[in-house]
Amino acid sequence: TTTVYYDDDADRSHIDSKTVAILGYGSQGHAHAQNLAESGVDVVVGLRPGSSSRAAAREDGLRVASPAEAAAEGDIVSILVPDTVQPAVFEEIRDGLEAGDTLQFAHGFNIHYSQIEPPEDVDVTLVAPKSPGHLVRRNYENDEGTPGLIAVYQDTTGEAKDEALAYAHGIGCTRAGVIETTFREETETDLFGEQAVLCGGVTSLVKQGYETLVDAGYSPEMAYFECLNELKLIVDLMYEGGLGEMWDSVSDTAEFGGLTRGDRIVDEHSRERMEEVLEEVQDGTFAREWILENQAGRPSYNQLKDAEESHGIEEVGRPLRDLFAWNDGDDEETEKAEAP
Length: 340
Ligand code: NDP
Ligand code: MG
Ligand code: MG
Fold this sequence. Notes:
The protein is of the alpha/beta class. 54% of the residues lie in helices and 12% in strands.
């Protein structure tokens, strides 16, 4: 069985006398920096001159320097800029890494696919909250935790794992529970999940369902509510109590219809495609494609983004969401509406 690490498993002496350089002050960066600082850890934020994030970090009471200066000062250097710019930022900061320092990530992509080749005399670790940064911050402020992962890629000091656990404690992850993984497993499962299920699979399912109804003559508004809006209610139930709680909460009709028809929609062909997508993640095909796409200035990415934005479900959804009161911008306690 998997070991889950909690607050008591973390020894804060592995971080309390160290300086942590947080490179980037976006989704993850602002949360790690503020949570660590409030946990009593010395934090310096590394941002490029003219960065739009500099003012925000200063307003939050943090010390700001250039990425190179911050990395030189830091004993732990946490790279929290977008994955696509990490290799360039790493080149700027590598001279500041001393023997025994730690290079730390929140996602394994650049290490796993060799886009960053760290010096041999530093520890290389991963501390990845399984949540967007604003929740990592909000949970910490509410004395709650955010579940997370740790991994060790390179351990020169013999203390890499203990230090990663202490860092996870500092950002509040051990309050909720932390499990140990590897860079390979974190990277491959993360990419597969977002491609096949979470981001790619779900949006395609929603669009196909919407198009099927609209093409059959049903109103786009009805199709929007049925195929997109209600998805949240279903996901909330699965999140709380697994598939079982969802099935228990919907009508028997919905349950019978879903159980008899679901596997006809996402069938063995989809399963074969999932296995293909997984192989492309495992053999580096996807990583190569994405790296080249960035080098070429993102032509396909921009085209696909534009097409997605002008899809009928988006055209109909924008005014609908403005019209209805459930979307007041405060997602803190979205009421749980009745399931179908
Ligand atoms: P963001 O896109 O939010 O990072 C933005 C920050 O990076 C800004 O402070 C920005 O500053 C800075 N930045 C952007 N480009 C550069 C550059 N060329 N040089 C220096 N600084 C730059 O990143 P995320 O927080 O989303 O992701 C950080 C890491 O965390 C990634 O490895 C990601 O995979 C991982 N992760 C992200 C999660 C999430 O929910 N977002 C969840 C778990 C892991 P500027 O104003 O200068 O542009
Ligand atoms: Mg991801
Ligand atoms: Mg219904």
